[in-house]
Amino acid sequence: MKNDLTDNPPENCNTILIVEDNQLLSDAIEMMIKLLPVKDSLPTIHIQKAMDYENAVVKILEIPNHGDLNTVILDINLGKQKKRERKSGRELGVLIRKHAPKTKIIVFTSHSDELEINSILKNINPEGFLIKDGRTDHNLFQEVILKVINGETYYCDTVLNVMSNIKIRNK
Length: 171
Prior knowledge:
- The chain is α/β, with parallel strands linked by helices.
- Helix content is 42%, strand content 19%.
- It comes from Aureibaculum flavum.
């Protein structure tokens, strides 16, 4: 698999945007993507990164000028914002669905409470959903990226349990 870190992706590649405010974690995610197992069926991957809401919005709104944005790995807590009104990855996910509805979203968040998970599922409907809880290792993370790139959906056990609890209450 080839990786390209320039701002302009080559044609026929899979562009992944990492939206994570923690530099170390952002770099680790990038490295995990670079280390994805090489397969002939896996296209060239172009990686972009945004450390905050504002930079992510710029990249999302530039999609029509720079080709497709195939996948976004999205943190929900995006730290301090430059403007007074704090925006989160939740609002960013809604923006992605509006401006790039074909883009696949993998939510990677520390939020594990039922209310927050339900809100993310309802408002963003991500193709992948992982909790930063110590159970997600690099092998699982890479597996989820590959599944989502290939059109599958993956939700971790915590999210599946919340979905099950909601279904039971709605009966």
